[in-house]
UniProtKB/TrEMBL annotation:
Role this protein plays: Provides the precursors necessary for DNA synthesis. Catalyzes the biosynthesis of deoxyribonucleotides from the corresponding ribonucleotides.
Protein name in the entry: Ribonucleoside-diphosphate reductase
Alphabetically ordered keywords of this record: Deoxyribonucleotide synthesis, Oxidoreductase
Highest taxon above the source species: Eukaryota
Family membership: Belongs to the ribonucleoside diphosphate reductase large chain family.
Pfam families hit by this protein: Ribonuc_red_lgC (PF02867), Ribonuc_red_lgN (PF00317)
Catalytic reaction equation(s): a 2'-deoxyribonucleoside 5'-diphosphate + [thioredoxin]-disulfide + H2O = a ribonucleoside 5'-diphosphate + [thioredoxin]-dithiol
Gene source species: Ephemerocybe angulata
Ribonucleotide reductase large subunit C-terminal domain mapped to chain residues: 177-366, 422-682
InterPro entries per UniProt: RNR_lg_C, RNR_lsu_N, RNR_R1-su_N, Rrm1
Amino acid sequence: MFVRVTPIILTFEPSMAQIFEDESLPSVLAEIAGSLETLGTDYALLSSALERSVIYKATPTGFGDAMRAAHSAGAISADFMSTVERHEPALCAMIRHEEDRRLNFRALCALRFSCLLHDAERLLERPQHMLLRAALYMHADNLEEVEATYLLMATQKMFPSYGILTGSGTSKPVLTSCYALRMETANVLPSIEKAVRLVRDGADVGIGVQSLACRGSVVDGTVQAGVPLAISALEAMLQALGTSMNRPSGAISVFVEPWHTDIEGLLKLIRKRSKVFRDGPRLEFGFLINDLFLHRVHADQPWTLVCPSRAPQLESLHGSAFEAEYTRVETGGHGSRQIGARKLWNNILDTIIATGGPFILYKDAIYGTIAFPRIYLMKIDRFFQARGNCGATVSDSTSFDGKEHILAAYLQALGAGSMLTLILPSFVTAEGAMDFQELSRVTRKAVDALNGVVDRTSRPLPPDGVFEGKPTAIRVGTNGFADLMVALGHSYDSSVARELNVAIAELVQYIALDQSCALLKTRGPISAPLNPNSETSTRLVQDHIWSLRELSNRYDWGALRARVTTEGLRNCDVTVYDSDPMTSIITGCSESSEPFRSLIAVLNGPSGLFVNIPRRFMGALERSNLWDDEVRDRIVEHRGSIQTMAKVPSSVRSAYRTVWDIEQSTIIRFALERAPFLCRAQDRVNDLC
């Protein structure tokens, strides 16, 4: 390996004396080499090797020794330590520290800063200790399953979520609690206080604010402050209450609809917030868009903004019922003012481009998919609480009993349930083919492991008036589809990619459902049984849902459908399409089934800002003797794309097309075609329209 060390020497030479005095040379060298990774892959190898040496120097080699140190520091529980001591020789023999070579510098930094156990500043474990700790938490005394699961994670065939990595064996929560609440004009302050306390304790909270009266309106003799000021008060309270030292803070997602009078003020607030760095819990925004608004956008027609105090039914309606009520309010002169629908839509898109938010949800599409036949709703202390057999999610639907209901779609966070991600590039054979048999085997292992997490994790009861996400849900997801296409030698928008997109989604859901059904017989229900006749079981085999599936001949869906109908499922959800940035950083893969966003981008990770380049991309150009400073700078000039660079081989240009180089219709078609094989709605992180 040849490395140009001159830039390294010149960079740290001014502080040489201090470096040697505090014995931090390896750490400084690793950071410097990491900052020079854009010069070539040699620097990536050097920086990761140096960072490993820093971690290894600070931690014990043996798993038992590391866990004893963690137990002495109060980082793991006494029960978990007892399990370690019972099986210490066997567990120590499982460890494969050589697998850490799969982790690049940024992955190691992310683990060191966020996932590995610490005692204040002191590091207590290595990456392989962390993975074995997670596997042991999943399977306890079943050492055969512990080892099998650990090896799959160590070799990056599947990888656990952040909550599993940080919480396994500790007193921290492994499952992220997800709560939903509704902010009304009469309960703004109690809602803010409740949300902030939940987030401080690590929960994710969804807040619906579209029933909040607009700025300047008069309700019960009081002039209202409106949505933007309520959000500002919420954010101020988040900062004032601080963060917990024992667990990471959660996030708040605020949802509103485009007919609300304060919609433009909220967009202005979102743009203003993006210019100020804020530490602490995340505050995100989502807009629930109805079809009527989109029709007005297409026709460039006026759009009437309405205060919810004058049209209280709008938030609870969708489809033709919403259109009828909105038209009645509009023609009856109950609106606040009018704006061009296209002007408002462009304002939303400009805000998304500038800030990355708000997220867009399509109200009628969400509730046009009847996955839950009935969701019963009860009014509790001025809150509406959605209740089904197992809760409701973004992909749940809208055949509601009762005249009043709150749309659970935007009040239900997607984070409920533990998650394991299948790393797709790891399933390419030496012959360059997709190994579906191995993917099937690992999917079963993932379902087993996640059910182990659910079985061993207690969940606190939600506060009064707050709707919690489904406790029996698990999430099997995928990462690295774009990297998979590179490894197979096909472009993202090729016919092969289109076929694999559906084939992978079909395999994962079939195997996950099959295994969940089998586990119900061998392990029994998690808490409340999902009986064969329950809505939770039958919703997965609804005729109108299954009719959307273009089934292959690989699996006996008819037999599975019969089993699920007669026997039931252990989990109310099993598959998910969800971006997991932490897993992408650690494994060095593209997010979920997304195309590459950019071939050179500056990202913000747990250890700070870093330059992200797809793992195989730089090596591909180096093999053609094309990677140098000029090429790198030209890619930056072209906003992360190489499509106009003629000297780059056409095969490389085809393989590394970014989201901006691909027709948006292709990306949307991919999403539509895999949708029938997912239990939840898809998080489309790259779509702007």
